[in-house]
């Protein structure tokens, strides 16, 4: 949602709103390393043990992922 201190979105509408806002403000350039982001989101998700929340990680890229092997490994490990 653009707020690093409180990144939660409320429902699908909140996710879509955050996505649309990010389209206006994000510039894509390299290097692009996703593994740290995947692992960060996974740590946040692991803290919610009661199933009351779900997590969506939307990855937008210009097509060049600098740490492809690490990103694949991170996605497999956290899934």
Task: Give the CA-CA distance, first to last residue.
Answer: 22 Å
Count up the helices.
Answer: 3
Largest sheet: none
What fraction of the residues are assigned to beta strands by DSSP? under 5%
The tally of strands reads 0
Give the low-confidence spans: none
Which structural class fits the helix and strand makeup? Answer: mainly alpha
Form type: flat
- Provide mean pLDDT, rounded: 87
| Rg calc | 13 Å
Can you put this structure into words, describing what you see?
The protein has a domain of 50 residues. Helix content is 48%, strand content 0%. Helix 2 packs parallel to helix 3.
Tell me the layout of helices and strands.
Blueprint: H1 11-25, H2 35-46, H3 68-78
Helix pairs in contact: 2-3
Organism: Centropus unirufus
Protein name: CPNE8 protein
Domain Copine C-terminal: 1-79
Features:
3 helices; mainly alpha; single chain
Describe, in short, the structure shown:
About 50% of the residues lie in helices and about 0% in strands.
